[in-house]
Amino acid sequence: MKILDASKLSDLADTLAGAGYRVVVPVQDGDRVRYAEWSPGATIRTDAFPVNSAKDFLFPRSEVIDRYQLDGDDFTPLEVRPPAPRTVLLAVRPCDAASLAMLDTIFNWDYEDDLYNARRAATTVVPLVCTRADAQCFCTSVGGAPDSSAGADALLHPADGGSRLILEPLTDKGKALVEAAGGALADGKAAPDAPADVPARFDPDKVRAWLADNFEADLWDLLSYACLGCGACAYACPTCHCFDMQDEATRTESVRLRNWDSCGFALFTKHAGGHNPRPDQAARWRNRVMHKFSYIPERFDLVGCTGCGRCARLCPAGMAMLEACTRIEEEARKAPAHES
Amino acid sequence: MSPDTESAAAPTREHRNIYQPIPMTVADRRDETADVRTLRLEFPGDAERTRFFEAYRVGQFGLYGMPGQGECVFCVASPPTRTDAIECTFRQAGRVTAALRDREVGQRITFRGPYGNHFPIEQWKGKNLLFVAGGIALPPLRAVIWNILDRRDEFGKVAILYGARTVADLVYKHELAEWDARDNVDLVQTVDPGGETDDWRGKIGFVPAVLEEVAPKPADTIALVCGPPIMIKFTLPVLAKLGFPAADTYTTLENRMKCGVGKCGRCNVGHLYVCKDGPVFTVEQLKAMPHADM
């Protein structure tokens, strides 16, 4: 059994960085905790929920996907080779690791997005089992668990009352990481701590059944009333993958950027002719819920939400996916979906 | 996914960056109306041209772009039977379409495609075809019309009803004259009341009303409808009343797109991606979609 002192996680990060990994860990950043690239002196925080998700390091907020030299009225394509550094997502949440199944699927279900795939192939995923959860956590309602190994190459278990960590390799990438960790890990024994108690709060199948019959329900107005359309939920969400493509140019060079986007933004679906198929915030919020709990399950046999609760923790208007889903399930109980 | 339409060609792994377009040269440009232009585009080489035409089926679309400005989605307006170049027809609406419109003959733009599904015309051999189009929505059907006319013997009767707000808004005027002159095409043209000129010899009236008046027979006939939402809305009930089955009535959907390849997440109608499951849908499929989302 490979173990280390919980207080020595930064030594492990240091060792892995020294071995050539880009080490992504939850660190203190002002008054928040966020996933960031490890640098010596940073404070690793595994006791608070990071505001961002691990997707930032596989599907960056903004990235150059095409580049041209501009010559008056003509242009010359320039090579685009986005960096795909060997990366470890260390002590991320199991719900972050679980979200990779969604991203892997969307970037490969038909056309294969090698910009994403190159980074994904270079990434080793090492979640830390959650021994505490907060009121917004609902991984167990969407097929996850606080000690889930879904998407993990190795798993960190808190042990001996939080004083130690057990590192359990699960894949070849995980074994390579243990190898690279060398002396930062010791052989020994430790008793794993119990994972957090995260009660199931709703049944996604019941939510999905209600959604199939209730595109026009009055409830959408009520559920979306507070939405400001700020998009914070989508940016924090580990499975939200919608993006925009925008060109930026000087006189001599242009780049095409892929930037995160959100179905909560008013311009997201607006046509050039002025028509907007999702004309109000209720239609946009409905798409957000439908996409995660109806369209993705229908299409890919996945639930498009890992229950991380980030959207609720960040929402300036106090909206919560958990609340929407429990409310929908309540509604479904009141008026069971008609048999067709 | 789309039982009534043929699925798109399988993606290839030839381009490692699926968002990287190829350059195309403007070989010709024509003004269709005051703000609608057609570009004829030549491929950079035979390899690119061959790769395109091996994949291309009528009804598919592409992304046309200018580096520094962006990309726009239009259908491929020329048929797969004409393999020396492709054409696109678009209305100038914003920054990208203005840049594309300003390209001179000999200058280059970028192109990605073909994307999306297509009209299952191989299943239509021997059948009659009715085309109903309005305004700027003729280009996708124009590609089908020429595809059918280039293989005229394989299909039954061809009837076309095309309308626009005014005579000036009719696109492909020289081709309308060519279809009109053919004895194996039945063309009816109409303009909205007030849109006629002194020498207008076509009909005067909205497309749905003219369709009802002309009353084409549904027997053994596939109907294809493309037009502004308001035209579609009032045309579909007329077709139903005339006896055209929803499963044999086809249309195309447009939604805002960025990637064109099922990733950027904005063109969906329900769980269907217009860019992958469409743009071609039967009216039967349309009826199963969440209406308010269209």
Question: What can be said about this structure in brief?
Answer:
The complex is a heterodimer of chains A (340) and B (294). With 340 residues, chain A is an alpha+beta fold.
Description:
The complex is a heterodimer of chains A (340) and B (294). Chain A is of the alpha+beta class. Chain A has ten helices and twelve strands. Chain A is globular and about 65 Å long. Chain B has helices spanning 46-55, 95-101, 138-150, 173-181, 207-214, 229-242, 283-287; strands spanning 22-31, 36-42, 61-66, 70-75, 86-91, 108-115, 128-134, 158-164, 186-191, 203-204, 221-226, 249-252, 268-269, 272-273, 280-282. Residues 1-15 of chain B have low confidence and may be disordered. Chain B has two domains: 22-115, Elongation Factor Tu (Ef-tu), domain 3; 121-252, Nucleotide-binding domain of ferredoxin-NADP reductase (FNR) module (Rossmann fold, 3-Layer(aba) Sandwich), CATH 3.40.50. Chain B is globular and about 50 Å long. In chain B, helix 5 (207-214) packs parallel to helix 6. At the A-B interface, strand 4, strand 5, strand 11, strand 12 and helix 8 of A face strand 13 of B.
